[in-house]
Design goal:
Number of strands: 13
Distance between the termini: 185 Å
Oligomer: single chain
Strand content: 15-25%
Structural class: alpha+beta
Shape: elongated
Radius of gyration: 50 Å
Number of helices: 4
Helix content: 10-25%
Length: 394
C-alpha cells in the first residue's frame, strides 16, 4: 500500500475512536441526571409537610436534627445599671431561655419591670427576677432587709443628731445625697496643763506692821493670799505705778468650717421593726356579772419630728464625723440634687478666707468714732390725778 492509503486508514480509525468516546460521554451524562432527579424526588417532602428550619442557634446540649425543647421569653437588661436605678423600657428587652431553666421568680413581661428599682447592681444581659427589683427601696429597707440594704458598697452608716435647721427644715428623705458641713471652734490652751488660757495666778502678800518698840512687843507680820483669774499681765503706768491688766472677757475661739461631700441618707428618724418585738398584751377574761367597759377609740397622735439621721460615708469620713460629734462641732446638712454625685474642690473657711476671698481691708485704729444722732428716750408716764409742775391737773 502506498502512503496515501495508509493516511486514509489512520483518519478513519481516528474518527471511529472519537465517535466511541462521544457516545460514552453522552451516556454517562444521562445516567448522572437520572440519579440526581431520583435523589431530589426522594428528598422533596410531600406537600403540606413542615419544612425543618435551617441551622439556627441551637440551645446548648441540643444536637442538630433533634426536636427543639420548649423556649420561654424572659426579660433581660440591655445595659449595666447601678443599685437604686429606676428601670425604663430603654434598658430592657426579652430573650429566649429554656423553659426548664426558668423559675417562677423570673420576670417574663417587660411591663412587670418598668418603674421598679434595682435592689443591687444589674449587669448587661442579666436575667431579671422579682427579687432583684423593688417598688420602693425605702419600704424594702424598712420592712424586709433593714437599713443595711440601702448602704452602698464601701460605705458604713452611723447616726448623727439632727434638728429643724441642720436637717434642711426636715426635708431629708431616705435615699437623698447630702453634704455634711462641720464647724469647729479652736481654743488656745496651755501646753503643760492642757487647759484654756488665760491661766490663774496666786500671789502671797505679806505685810509687816512695826509695833512700838518695847521690851515685851515685837513686829507683827500678816499674810494674805490673792488669786487672780484670769491672769493677764502687769504693766507700768505713765505715773510709774504698776497695774495688772486682765482680759475683759473669756477667750474668743477661732471658727473653722469644712465639708464632707456626697453622703447618702439611709434613714430619717429612729428605725422601727416591721413587727413588734414585745408579745401581744393578753386580753383579760370577763367575769360574770361585771359590766364590760366600752373601749374608747384611739386618739390620733401627731408624727414627731426626727431627732436622729442615719448617713452612710466611707470608713475614714465616718470616723471623722464621729470625732466631730463627740467634739461638740456644729453639724449641718446640705441637700444635693437627684443623681448629683460629683465631688467639688472646696476650701476650708475661716477668718483668713473671708479677708482674702472678699478682699477685706482691716481699718486702722482711730482715737475717735461716730455714734448715732438719734437716741431713744424713755418717757415715764405720769399717774392719773397727779398735778403737773404748772399747777394744772394732768
Amino acid at each position: 500500500m502506498n502512503r496515501r492509503t495508509i493516511a486514509i486508514l489512520i483518519f478513519i480509525v481516528g474518527i471511529l475512536i472519537l465517535s466511541v468516546v462521544g457516545v460514552l460521554y453522552v451516556l454517562q451524562q444521562d445516567s448522572g441526571d437520572t440519579q440526581q432527579t431520583t435523589a431530589g424526588d426522594a428528598e422533596t417532602p410531600p406537600s403540606g409537610a413542615e419544612t425543618p428550619p435551617e441551622d439556627i442557634g441551637l440551645p446548648p446540649g441540643v444536637e442538630p436534627g433533634e426536636p427543639l425543647p420548649e423556649m420561654v421569653e424572659v426579660v433581660v437588661s440591655l445595659q449595666t445599671v447601678p443599685r437604686g436605678w429606676q428601670l425604663t423600657e430603654a434598658e430592657l428587652t426579652t430573650d429566649l431561655r429554656l423553659a426548664t431553666e426558668v423559675g417562677t421568680n423570673v420576670i417574663k413581661d417587660v411591663k412587670d419591670a418598668v418603674g421598679l428599682y434595682a435592689r443591687t447592681d444589674i449587669f448587661q444581659g442579666e436575667t431579671l427576677t422579682f427579687d432583684s427589683l423593688v417598688t420602693d427601696p425605702t419600704i424594702l429597707g424598712a420592712n424586709e432587709y433593714g437599713p443595711s440594704s440601702l448602704i452602698p458598697p464601701g460605705f458604713v452608716a452611723a447616726a448623727v443628731p439632727v434638728d429643724r435647721l441642720s436637717g434642711v427644715a426636715y426635708g431629708l428623705k431616705a435615699g437623698d445625697n447630702v453634704d455634711i458641713m462641720l464647724s469647729f471652734l479652736f481654743y488656745q490652751i496651755d501646753e503643760e496643763f492642757q487647759t484654756y488660757l488665760q491661766n490663774a495666778a496666786v500671789f502671797f502678800l505679806e505685810d509687816v506692821i512695826q509695833a512700838v518698840e518695847t521690851e515685851d512687843t515685837q513686829a507683827l507680820a500678816t499674810q494674805e493670799v490673792v488669786i487672780i483669774a484670769p491672769y493677764g499681765r502687769f504693766e507700768e503706768l505713765p505715773t510709774g505705778d504698776l497695774a495688772h491688766v486682765a482680759p475683759s472677757e473669756t477667750q474668743r475661739p477661732v471658727l473653722v468650717s469644712m465639708i464632707l461631700q456626697n453622703a447618702k441618707v439611709i434613714q430619717v428618724g429612729e428605725w422601727v421593726p416591721p413587727e413588734g418585738i414585745e408579745g401581744p398584751t393578753p386580753t383579760p377574761e370577763p367575769v360574770e356579772g361585771d359590766v364590760t367597759p366600752t373601749a374608747l377609740p384611739p386618739q390620733p397622735t401627731g408624727t414627731p419630728f426626727p431627732k436622729v439621721l442615719l448617713v452612710a460615708l466611707s470608713p475614714q469620713q465616718q470616723l471623722f464625723l464621729k470625732y466631730a460629734v463627740e467634739s461638740g462641732a456644729d453639724i449641718d446638712f446640705a441637700l444635693r440634687g437627684v443623681q448629683d454625685g460629683q465631688l467639688y474642690s472646696v476650701q476650708n473657711v475661716d477668718i483668713n478666707y473671708l479677708l482674702q476671698q472678699f478682699n477685706i481691708e482691716i481699718p486702722s485704729n482711730f482715737n475717735y468714732s461716730v455714734d448715732a444722732v438719734i437716741r431713744e428716750v424713755e418717757l415715764t408716764p405720769t399717774p392719773v390725778g397727779q398735778s403737773s409742775g404748772n399747777g394744772e391737773d394732768s
